[in-house]
Amino acid sequence: MHQTFDAALEINLLHANQAGADHNRAHFDTWGISCLNLMSSPGAGKTQLLERTLAVLQSEFSIAVIEGDMTTELDADRLRQYGVPVIAINTGRSCHLDSKMVAGGIHRLAHDYNPTEFDLVLVENVGNLVCPAEFEVGEHAKVALLSITEGEDKPLKYPVMFQQADCLLITKMDLAPHLEVEIDRIVSNVRQMNPHCAIIPVSAKTGEGLEAWYAWVRDRIQQTQQLQRSLAAV
Ligand SMILES: Nc1nc2c(ncn2[C@@H]2O[C@H](COP(=O)(O)OP(=O)(O)OP(=O)(O)O)[C@@H](O)[C@H]2O)c(=O)[nH]1
Ligand SMILES: [Mg+2]
Question: Mutate which of 39, 47, 54, 129 to test ligand 1's pocket (most atoms within 8 Å of Cβ)?
Answer without folding.
Answer: 47
